[in-house]
Amino acid sequence: AVLRGHALRPSIQGEVFGEIARLVPAYQGLTQDGFGPDGAFTKAALAPPAGEFFAPPPAPIAAGGLMLITGNCLFHNGYLSERSDILSTVADDPYVEMSAPDAAQLGLADGDQVVVRSAQGELTAKLKVNKRFPNGLVFVPENYRSMRLNSLLRRGEYPCPVEVEMAHAAFEIATLAGVGAWPGNPG
């Protein structure tokens, strides 16, 4: 600080956060009080950076209006924690998270096994319904190797349009398809 002509003084958390919010576009519009236990979502539009600008590819359009976002799970740090007996008791199973209104519209409930499908592939996991989660978004943590999350994503496409539906057991699918029907059991 002295080399730059400034006095080094103690910083308080609010001042540090205020400076980050002022300088980092993704933090603009956020306040410390706005953070909950799961972080915060901002609807603030990002200001374009100064200098040369390259237009991003056109935003993908979701068929059902749902867009997949990915990120870290609160208690899981991928390879570093997936082998920990203690940490796996906190966040052991992969999951898919979405808002309560979106889940209700699709006839889904917390704990249901769901299939998340994109143009590239699909995955199956347990649904977590979060009443504070923004509508139109589906979250899949990128920390679980077994999920093979990259199978849903196409290079340069983020967020990714997806469909979410109830996963059906093999017996259910066979019955719906008429497989396994016999006299006395119309299938």
Order of neighbouring strands in the sheet with most strands: 1-5-2-4-3-6
- The rounded Rg comes to 22 Å
Let me know the average pLDDT. Answer: 78
User: SS-based structural class?
Assistant: alpha/beta
The count of strands amounts to 6
DSSP strand content? 15-25%
* Rough outline: globular
CATH class membership of the largest domain: Mainly Beta
Task: Count the DSSP helices.
Answer: 4
Q: How much helix is in the residues?
A: 10-25%
SSE topology string: HEHEHEEEEH
Description:
This protein has 187 residues and is an alpha/beta fold. The protein folds into two domains: 2-34, no CATH class; 66-171, Barwin-like endoglucanases (Beta Barrel). Helices cover 15% and strands 20% of the residues. The chain contains four helices and six strands. The protein has helices spanning 13-23, 79-82, 100-105, 170-176, and strands spanning 66-71, 95-99, 113-117, 122-130, 137-141, 160-166. The chain has a six-stranded mixed beta barrel.
